[in-house]
Amino acid sequence: MLKKQELLATPIEHIDITKTNVVPLVDAMAGMAFSARDLARAAEITDRMVRDQDCGIILCLAGSLISAGLKKVFVDAIRCNMVDAIVSTGANIVDQDFFEALGYKHYIAAEALKSGMHDADLRELAIDRIYDTLIDEDELRVCDDTTKIIADELEGRPHSSREFIRAMGAYLDKHGCKTADSIVYEAYKREVPIFVPAFSDCSAGFGLVAHQHARGDQPKVAIDSAKDFYELTQLKIANPTTGLFMIGGGVPKNFAQDIVVAADILGHEAPMHKYAVQITVADVRDGALSGSTLKEASSWGKVDLAYEQMVYSEATMAVPLIMGYAYHKGHWKQRTGREWNKLLSPVTVG
Amino acid sequence: MLKKQELLATPIEHIDITKTNVVPLVDAMAGMAFSARDLARAAEITDRMVRDQDCGIILCLAGSLISAGLKKVFVDAIRCNMVDAIVSTGANIVDQDFFEALGYKHYIAAEALKSGMHDADLRELAIDRIYDTLIDEDELRVCDDTTKIIADELEGRPHSSREFIRAMGAYLDKHGCKTADSIVYEAYKREVPIFVPAFSDCSAGFGLVAHQHARGDQPKVAIDSAKDFYELTQLKIANPTTGLFMIGGGVPKNFAQDIVVAADILGHEAPMHKYAVQITVADVRDGALSGSTLKEASSWGKVDLAYEQMVYSEATMAVPLIMGYAYHKGHWKQRTGREWNKLLSPVTVG
Amino acid sequence: MLKKQELLATPIEHIDITKTNVVPLVDAMAGMAFSARDLARAAEITDRMVRDQDCGIILCLAGSLISAGLKKVFVDAIRCNMVDAIVSTGANIVDQDFFEALGYKHYIAAEALKSGMHDADLRELAIDRIYDTLIDEDELRVCDDTTKIIADELEGRPHSSREFIRAMGAYLDKHGCKTADSIVYEAYKREVPIFVPAFSDCSAGFGLVAHQHARGDQPKVAIDSAKDFYELTQLKIANPTTGLFMIGGGVPKNFAQDIVVAADILGHEAPMHKYAVQITVADVRDGALSGSTLKEASSWGKVDLAYEQMVYSEATMAVPLIMGYAYHKGHWKQRTGREWNKLLSPVTVG
Amino acid sequence: MLKKQELLATPIEHIDITKTNVVPLVDAMAGMAFSARDLARAAEITDRMVRDQDCGIILCLAGSLISAGLKKVFVDAIRCNMVDAIVSTGANIVDQDFFEALGYKHYIAAEALKSGMHDADLRELAIDRIYDTLIDEDELRVCDDTTKIIADELEGRPHSSREFIRAMGAYLDKHGCKTADSIVYEAYKREVPIFVPAFSDCSAGFGLVAHQHARGDQPKVAIDSAKDFYELTQLKIANPTTGLFMIGGGVPKNFAQDIVVAADILGHEAPMHKYAVQITVADVRDGALSGSTLKEASSWGKVDLAYEQMVYSEATMAVPLIMGYAYHKGHWKQRTGREWNKLLSPVTVG
């Protein structure tokens, strides 16, 4: 077995979609069959969302996307006003993006490690594995600890995950963001809200448990997932035309789809999401939400049928093509940032 | 198009694993290859968890399992002391199990509806579709409303989802449980804790948003996902030997795996989960947690390598065989209920 | 690394579906959702084929099914007159079934070998791997050589694969079948035709290449895939009502479906296959035939829509349940063997 | 329902990889994780095969690739001497490529047709469906009939599929190829052999059955799959360094891999395939060959371990990137055509 240093030698590098104009390639795929045609249609719908200046665009992230090299795609999307809000799993935002903003990196695993045959050895070396990618667990523990520090400085009351993640952005602003591209930091600067509806289910969970334990009977930071839902619904009410750009399924997909119903429950007749794209490897057979079709979501009154497209592909292949298409079409140049964080702060409950 | 009543004519019926002794069938599968052999080994590990009287068994549920007819399997597992805690997505617990406890049912969809070609019609009729299964949305709205009633009666402070779900059990106890088999109600009676780490991401979220909205500036119920994590970790600390029986992946899988690390952060050297079984259709290729191998989890120090088994199968086929095997082996007769809810109430923070 | 003998220590054992009555279990699955419901319907259609005494049943086999422990299922199906013809990949018939009839076995691979990390070592030891199963390559070479011996004794002219496989059965009859259950031998005795439309693509291919090479300019055995197609079509013409029981997709699925069109081309208006069941893990997304739906096959005029069912499952799990269901329903007791080999010999071209 | 003419209005258009230089995009993918990294490595290995002037490159095609819009990719690969032999399913070569060479087209199906809900209507209109693509069955019957005409003009003896496909190229040369890009015709002109080991399992099968039927007792064309195997093995013996570029699995994958063993059986110590790339959506779980890893193939002594890469992706997305990469790297400019048909004619047996 190699030493830790040798195993963590080659960092993941984030792809830059601004460099290759994929528009002709993707347009050609529209005349083909199967996933290529689906991908081209998804790209066209994504461009359509960007072109529609009434549309608030919600990016949903599930899966290990940041560690996989897609970080800069999303940061560029924020910078180009192609994203107005983000709903994500905790790992993408805390363990991976914030982790890199603290100055750490993800590493390419040698082929043999993918087999799982060396996981006991990795355990000994305090190296965590995500399929073909490695993480220094000691560095990840620093990330955990930093979330505790942030929690300790917040008011002892229920916060939405969005409020907490905004505080993470403020922390980076104060102590320095140690990477050129950070979703948390870029979203902080541009007032783009980020929601993580299962916020304890990541590195921040460890910091929060430690925080709550240390506080004992004193008021402590709680992460109120209902508040998240309330806030995201406010955005739907304020900006009825919406589009979902979803990578993977899981909680982010369901959470973002559900705000149509939540708005209705609060007495606002909000339209279904007008645009919806999902990139996933999950399939429809097991009835789980992650692979459920966007047509099915329309039976629930959540997604409109006119502009929806599933793309069955692993994200690292499809996202650079679809987001690259929307970027190079250039319609984002007519958009301005919605700065939804500003909208949320006053209406926040609690 | 048929009328609503005609579409909602044939209810889903929950399978009863006590009726067929599958032990010889599953034992024979151990001598085969591929999924049959994996399934047999998973069944053997499940039986081993049940036999190990030191082992606290955590059942993790993701996917539409209750609507799919697996409810009685889990209720029987609770009754036989084969489950000591549950971590689930919200849909299984609230939209599906609690929904049925309120007297409603899920219905078999006609073949043509699976195509998605009739979802706009279903929308008109207020029928929600889960692949091949139908739900009366009007009934589901009653379920949403009931969670608001429950929230309105709780103290205005952060609660763990476990506390809230226990209150749902108490509600059923008071107003009557209208089905013979309910996970929420059975768990309530036997003091089995149920955690839903992304609790707003289900029918309860609608009730909670309405509750918080109605409360305005008054103290309100918050659902603190950090408290969930804190509580589940306490169970690991109190009962270090643990086994995970996981159906699907997602937040429940990650959340339950993570308590090993959380215990460590709170200063307790807890062992990795000693047993782990996962039934899933997700695969390893996209690096997402749902399909990540249990070997990979061992690199994170979460799952031990000696007794772990992935079974790549849709749950409705594999669960009756595996849980049926453990049931008919009968080692649960030597177990007593842990009644972990009793353990949690005093240590609960907040 | 272990020695060859240690690696090849635990043989695969073939499951015996006659031992557990799965009818109540499968009937219960009909009231569930997802794959369980599909499986129950597939079992019901299979039973219906068996009940329909006009129906000729064609079993299609793709994937490593015999090495996986399903051999006895198919042998029992032949013995019970539940199968009237077989269309298969070569590996199942020659490398696996005939191989076992020569007295050899398949072996269970230790977990670590599945990773592929030891394949170079296996190569050194002349052990071939099929995922989690091992084969002694020296024994497989004997199987190759035996097919050459059989070819050498045949007339030097084009043969259908069926004729050749029948000669393999005769070889076993003469030299002794060294296993209790053999598809090739049982089919020989009961005059059930077996077709392998890509016959060179297996162990027999090696024997045939050696045979043709040795013959030089002399007349030699050719395997005429057109003759296979012609013969199978004759069966459809002679017995218009047909059912397909397909495991996996590939050439066997397509070949058997196509005979409806071939009959039409020969001037016989044959009905579409009346019953069709397919068990597969392939999905529809890539447009390949293996995962194409049976509905799609109806657009080609090959499969009727009334009784068709896809089951998305790995075969080792689904086949014992579906075939076990048909066996224990017992309607095969009213059937007699069609002995289609007798029908074919006179009409054979060439 | 629309009329046939309206349904067959928008033809599939074949992608042109020469137009977009994807080298920077694919190179960037090498620094990512998951499928992007695998794809980049597969592209690099493909370029390496092309650079290695000793290497004979065998292209293996399974799945509906030509109807899906990939035809021009393969024709360009032949033109650039990036392909020395082809092993394919029959559908790609006969029903799709030769069909288009006769002047027919494939058509884009409207979204609703993909559901399968309209297949009975399509049947009425004599329109065949491949997932999201449509074919005029009347035109396909012309293709069937043309293969009969070709068979009728051949000598009544066993032919390899390669000989027959070469005759199809000659037919196009004589009667005119009605499309700018045809694999069959381009391969004919450049003496690139095409093998279809299950040749009856396609449109040609219908023509051959009709031919054999019409011939009655007279000598007739037989398609000898053993001869195919013999011929392909001769190429391996003549040119020991080989690389496999495989799209999908099935018979073509197995057939091409097996020639290493066949060469050995004929007394020639041929090295394993030095390079191997496979693009597939099949997975390893069911033990079927299509999804079996290239590492597993090395246990069989068929594929070397140094330069092998699986890419889990639907072909329409991955092939333009991988073949586009190899094209734009430009190393094919140093290659000359092997014209293997010339090599084969004299050594052909029988």
TrEMBL record, chains A, B, C, D:
Domain of life, source organism: Bacteria
Q: What are its E.C. numbers?
A: 2.5.-.-
Extract the GO molecular function terms from the UniProt entry: deoxyhypusine synthase activity
> In this record, what's one Pfam family?
DS
Q: Which GO terms describe its cellular component?
A: cytoplasm
Q: Does the keyword Protein biosynthesis apply?
A: no
> What are the UniProt keywords, alphabetically?
Transferase
Concerning PANTHER family, the annotation shows: DEOXYHYPUSINE SYNTHASE (PTHR11703), DEOXYHYPUSINE SYNTHASE-LIKE PROTEIN (PTHR11703:SF2)
Q: Which family does it belong to?
A: Belongs to the deoxyhypusine synthase family.
Query: What HAMAP family does UniProt report for this protein, alphabetically?
Result: DHS_like (MF_00640)
* Name of this protein: Deoxyhypusine synthase-like protein
What species is given as this protein's source? Answer: Tuwongella immobilis
